[in-house]
Amino acid sequence: MHPARHAETQPDKPALIVAETGETVSYAELNARSNRVAQLFRARGLGRGDTVAYFLENHPSFLEFAWGAQRSGLFFVCISCKLTAPEVDYILADSGAKLLVTQASLGAVAQALDSGIERLVLDGDAEAVLAAMPDTPITDESAGTDMLYSSGTTGRPKGVKVALPDPPQIDAPNALLMLARHLYGVGPDTVYLCPAPLYHAAPLRWTMAVQRFGGTAVVMEHFEPETALAAIDRYRVTHAQFVPTHFVRMLKLPEAARARHDLSSLKVAFHAAAPCPVPVKQAMMDWWGPIIHEYYAGSEGNGMTAVGPQDWLARPGTVGRAVHGIVHICAEDGRELPARETGLVYFEGQTNFEYHNDPAKTAESRNAAGWSTLGDVGWLDEEGYLYLTDRKSFMIISGGVNIYPQEIENLLVTHPAVADVAVVGAPHDEMGEQVVAVVQPVTEAEAGDALAAELTAFCRQSLSGIKTPRRFDFVEELPRHATGKLYKRLIRDRYWGKESRIV
Predict the structure, then answer these.
(1) What are the CB-based long-range contacts (under 8 Å, 24+) for 401-406?
(2) Which of 121, 165, 401, 447 shows a CA-CA span of 20 to 30 A to 315?
(3) Please, which residues have CB within 8 angstroms of residue 417's CB and are 6 or more apart in sequence?
(4) CB burial readout 300-327, b (16+ within 10 A) else e
């Protein structure tokens, strides 16, 4: 399965629709344009195993460049548009990219780059350059793959690198395709809404998976809660992927806005990136019905759990059972723990990923048995359902007690005055760390001592005293990535400065 094959059988079918504008790219157009991209790569001297970098928003051409690299046997690095020039320079240098594709709207950052790498600018010189290329396949087509960098939420970004696909045929099946069909019924009739940036793993990989099946991907330029609902209605979307912050923002729309759009075409909505607070997910189930699925996985592709709506309703809070790999929970000393004991989450199975140019971090991700971890903490019930507690690096140690912020965040975000929240540990002379809640209020005017007192009382109804934040700080907006991931490192560094214990 590959867009090139669908270009032969259904050339006029939409492969891509831009949600906000309705701009459409057919399979014939996607195939021709990705061929031109592949021809360009060869003309610029890029061969199998080389690396190209994309510094792009959700531009209509993003996917033709992704497919161009995929059919050229290249590693393609997709860089977050939220990064600064020095951060982009670091990724370009670390990845060894030989060509950078960017766009005119990102010119300010692109112009500030110190890297001398060759550049191609969309809405600039790229169109003329590509028009001069043949729209036929290169003679040595072979499958490439993405090499994506972590978002930097816990430290400096690291590239997740796997071997190029073997067999190398561009239309060879992969594990994600099988999971997409088995778990969510993705197929040629799928109309998939992608509300998140394509430079991240899940949006990119699921969108490309839909196009492998010959479905239609509806890609949002930027997420806005009501725009997402309108897109589901307008394009009769059947499948969509979200993150918990998307759910929170949609739930906080006025009732009239929520009710004005017909969502009856939606068969499956699945979410990942971070565990969803139970009340938030329950509220989405109440609104959309039992169509909400969840999975847990990482860019590393070392394992995956999944849970459907009925199993989740029976076990609120679980991220499911293993569908790829085998889950183990281990103590710090490597011992495997029994059911309901909390420890590091490991996957047993194929672990062929490495952290590019960081053998120490690669080694740290494995235990003596060869199992790999993403650094998440959780526990299994007796039936093998996984419950995540938090990331190990986010744990707060106060007076010798381990406190996981996620539990506190999941509670606070349900308060009607809270739009977003992050809980961190801040230095404390006596306790080592104290629990601090950094809150983005729904209404900025509400920020202050009165709201802090209200939130303290709210927490004490459900949390022990040690978990209740000792301090509430209010901010206009939390530093979240467009995927929904929180740059918690940046928040903690405000309190720790150079003494930050974040790795």
Answers:
(1) 401/466, 403/435, 403/466, 403/467, 404/377, 405/435, 406/275
(2) 401
(3) 441, 442, 443, 446, 451, 454, 455
(4) bbbbbbbbbbebbeeeeebbbbbbbbeb
Helix (H), strand (E) at residue 256 = helix 255-259
User: Which residue, 64, 80, 70, is CA-closest to 31?
Assistant: 64
Residues 170, 144: Cα–Cα separation, whole Å: 8
DSSP 3-state of 403: strand
**What is the chain's mean pLDDT, rounded?**
90
pLDDT above 50: residue 61:
yes
* CA–CA distance, 158 with 161 (Å, rounded to integer): 9
Could you tell me if 197 and 78 are in contact, meaning their C-beta atoms sit under 8 angstroms apart? no
- The whole-angstrom distance between residue 379's C-alpha and the CA centroid of its chain comes to 23
CA–CA gap between residue 431 and residue 103 (Å, rounded): 49
Q: Strands 372-380 and 343-348: what pairing?
A: antiparallel
pLDDT tens for 227-248 read 999 999 999 999 999 988 889 8
In angstroms, rounded to a whole number, what is the distance separating the alpha carbons of residues 84 and 175?
34
* DSSP code, position 137: P
Smallest CA-to-CA distance from 176 within 304, 322, 344, 65 is with 304
DSSP-derived secondary structure letter, 56 = -
Tell me if residue 258 falls in helix, strand or coil. Answer: helix
Q: Is 324 in contact with 304 (CB distance < 8 Å)?
A: yes
3-class DSSP assignment, residue 345: strand
Rounded Cα–Cα distance for residues 318 and 310 (Å): 12
Confidence category of residue 370, pLDDT binned at 50, 70, 90: very high
Identify whether the C-beta of residue 384 lies closer than 8 Å to the C-beta of residue 322: yes
d(CA 386, CA 375): 15
Angle, helices 405-412 vs 278-288, to 10°: value is 40
- Written as six digits, the tokens of 116 are 């001398």
Q: For the chain, what are the domain ranges?
A: 3-213, 397-499
Backbone angles phi, psi at 361, to 5 degrees: -65, -35
- The superfamily (CATH) of domain 397-499 is ANL, C-terminal domain (3.30.300.30)
Segment 144-156 shows an average pLDDT of: 73
Domain range 3-213, CATH architecture? 3-Layer(aba) Sandwich (3.40)
* Lowest pLDDT segment from 42-51, 173-182, 423-432: 423-432
Residue 415 above 80 pLDDT?
A: yes
Q: Rounded to whole angstroms, how far apart are CA atoms 267 and 183?
A: 12
Stated pTM of the model = 0.81
Q: Distance (Å, rounded) from C-alpha 67 to C-alpha 4?
A: 10
| CB atoms near residue 286 (< 10 Å) | 10
